Amino acid sequence: APPLPLGPGGDTIQPSGGGKKRSIQTKYRLPLLNWQALSSEQVVGTIFSELDDEHVLQELDMDAFEEEFKTKAQSAPVDLGTLKMKVAQKPVSRVTLMEPNRAKNLAITLRKEGMAGSDICVAIESYDQRALSLDFLEQLERFVPTEQELKLLRGHEASGRPQMDLSEEERFLLRFSQIPRLNQRISALTFMGNLPDSVGRLQPQLDAIIAASMSIKSSGKLKKILEVVLAFGNYMNSSRRGAAYGFRLQSLDLLLDTKSTDRRRTLLHFLVSSVRQKLPELSAFHTELHFLDKAALVSIDSVLQDVRALERGMEATRSEFQAENHPVLQRFLSSNAGLLEALTADGRTAQVGFR
């Protein structure tokens, strides 16, 4: 190994044997050995007073030791000749425009997509659906600059300070904020990307409701069963509450709650017995009903709410086309406006049929 260099300023320390030990300046930062050190006075009369660690260092490959044990994420070896100059230099100050956790999450999002920030912004400006995944767009929507961030970004631009003073995420945010109608563009892109799947998910649900409603309305036997239920209900209620002309289907649950005097049978049990004995032709009324199993899994309110959300998205996309007149938007509207109109019409049909 080469001769050991002196520490900064030739500093030395007192060794155990009375001579001076040199302070060693390593090329790399090394981990600390958390031992309990002895002073020169404490080693007197011990085996350590007979040792010469500086001599043995000359026989060891300390360069290899440093390479293997240096702490992670270090820069190139220290140039001892310029060390003092570097210490004296003032560190570069960086401007912080984003909240640290938000900046960290943005960095993770950008890294996952693996595209340059400038390419991402160009893709948004040109409505390039193929360049940006839907998941990424939906995540990116969370990083549309806030009012506070916009204020800081504009202030930085106005100050004339170089962009390199900003972190990589903040430079992206600066470029991102310069996209005209940023919110509207991202909303249009996510809507256009999601529409096919949304229609594909909602159409079968509407079809099930419509088919089940038509099946119920066309079943003569079911109508007769409901007539029997209405007859029993009015028989029980009319003297005190007046006769009813109909009832909500949710009221059928009450047939199970109404018990006989001995509480052994319900009104539903009695109705079934009555139909089997007096109107046996109605016993198989359920064979006339179709698609009820599929329709029972559908929440009509939820489906109609989703359809209305698609209508709002289409209207927003039309507004974006009027503002931008971009061919991508024009092609999308031409290809999909009719598709959504048909879905909306089915939504109205399902709503009427459900009632």
Structure description:
The chain has 15 helices and two strands. Helices cover 57% and strands 1% of the residues. The chain is mainly α and 355 residues long. The radius of gyration is 40 Å and the shape is elongated. The protein has four domains: 8-88, no CATH class; 100-179, Methane Monooxygenase Hydroxylase, Chain G, domain 1, CATH 1.20.58; 189-212 and 296-354; 220-288, no CATH class. The protein has a two-stranded antiparallel ribbon with strand order 1-2.
Helix proportion: 55-70%
Shape: elongated
Which stretches are poorly predicted, pLDDT < 50 over at least 5 residues? 1-17
End-to-end C-alpha gap: 92 Å
Enumerate how many helices there are, as a single number: 15
Q: Give the helices and strands as they follow along the chain.
A: EEHHHHHHHHHHHHHHH
Q: Please tell me the total number of domains.
A: 4
Largest sheet at a glance? 2 strands, antiparallel
- Coarse structural class: mainly alpha
Q: Please list the strands of the largest sheet in the order they lie side by side.
A: 1-2
Number of strands: 2
Q: What is the average of the pLDDT values? A: 80
Organism: Menidia menidia
Family: Belongs to the formin homology family.
Domain FH2: 20-355
GO molecular function, one term: actin filament binding
